[in-house]
Amino acid sequence: MKKIILNAIQKSGKNYITYEEFISLCLYHSDKGYYQKSDTKIGRKGDFYTTSSVGTVYGEVIASVFCRLIKNEVIDPIFIEVGAGNGRFANSFLTYCKKNEPTIYANLEYRIVDESKYHRSLQMKALLQHTNVSYYSSISDLSKIQNGLIFSNELFDALPVRVVEFCQNKWQEVVISYNETNDLIEKFIEIENDSTFEFLKYHHFSGKHGQRVEIPIAMESVFKGLNQVLDHGIIMTVDYGFTKDEWNAPHRVKGSLRGYHQHEMKTNVFEFLGEMDLTTHIHWDELRRLADMNHLENLYFHSQRQALIDFGILNWLVQHASMNPFSDEYKNNRAIQSLIMPGGISDSFQLLLQIKGFF
After folding, report:
1. Cα–Cα distance between 84 and 135 in angstroms, integer?
2. What secondary structure letter does DSSP report for 36?
């Protein structure tokens, strides 16, 4: 991967590449990119956990909300999952529908969009028993969704970003170059993209010395892709990020770009090139602004913990459950506790509901 990056820098004609290009190569290169490799990424043997790693209850709760929406004739039985990982969420979701809502399940269209060939192969194996699933490599491959729900869990945090830093009393872009020993280094250039200045101004990043901000350069195109394919319905986004007030907190002055390798956080993103996940906290205010610009309504925004409680996860608790730690009841209750415990995994995530065509 390092050779690929050095080659890209040398061919750039500028002797540098942007962080957007660097992250794209590390994560999405067709051969050596992290998400394209046939390596375990999620769970104990991987590099990070997701909410769907915690038992089956997460997928079941979202499925129950989806089924209630169908029964109330809010949407049709069309569910699109963008970035489905190893297929564990989809399996929990579909199994719940099959067992508890067989009529809905019989008419359900479950569409998975995932750029990674490796992940699509895992999903197909995990979902063999569900014949109502179709697979796509790109949002643009989807046919129009007349009235359904688009769901993503940790999609936007994995998108490429540009990086800026406030130094010498102005914002400058941080880019990737190399030194005489071919080590990757950062350098500063004048910002060339007007949209970067517009983003900083709109979200009131006035700048303080040494402050870094990740510019979500790919967020708009991905959101527009979702919007274009959805005629009427709901976009449910689960991710981790900050509002503009949170971004300005002193302890976030260095931004949020980092890597995860074997469950260890790496602040040096030049380590383990192509071998670790790269991620940033997303700008929730920008995602909500994009909805406003594209005639969607921002209906609901809370921590994932509060959302799961609002969605009825407490109904999954088994009263007087066995205290045998190996029993299904005990494991179920422990999974619920880990999802709703203050300070736990769900407090690190937020859930946003955006609706289109209802008003």
Report:
1. 10
2. G
DSSP character string of 98-144? HHH-HHHHHH-EEEEE-S-HHHHHHHHHHTTT-TTEEEESSGGGSPP
CA distances from 24 to 39, 141, 293, 311 (A): 18, 21, 26, 35
Q: Are 194 and 184 in contact (CB under 8 A)?
A: no
Cα–Cα distance, 216 to 34 (Å, whole number):
20
Please tell me the predicted confidence (pLDDT) of residue 282: 97
Write down the pLDDT at residue 52: 64
Main-chain dihedrals φ then ψ at residue 174, nearest 5 degrees: -95, 125
308-342 confidence digits (pLDDT tens): 999 999 998 877 555 665 667 777 788 888 888 88
Amino acid, res. 58? Y
Residue-level pLDDT at 47: 46
- pTM of the predicted structure, to 2 decimals: 0.92
Q: Which one, of 269, 237, 313, 246, lies nearest residue 27 by Cα?
A: 269
CA distances from 250 to 166, 193, 244, 255, 256 (A): 14, 26, 13, 10, 13
**Residues in the chain, overall count:** 359
Structure-token pair, residue 156? 């936007």
Q: Tell me the C-alpha distance between 222 and 113, whole Å.
A: 12
Q: β-strand 78-82 against 109-113: which pairing, if any?
A: parallel
Q: What's the token pair of residue 44?
A: 């104990």
Q: How far is CA 115 from CA 136, 143, 189, 225, in A?
A: 8, 17, 32, 14
Secondary structure letter of residue 343 according to DSSP: T
182-223 pLDDT per residue, tens: 999 999 999 988 999 999 999 999 888 999 999 999 999 999
User: SS3 of 202, please?
Assistant: helix
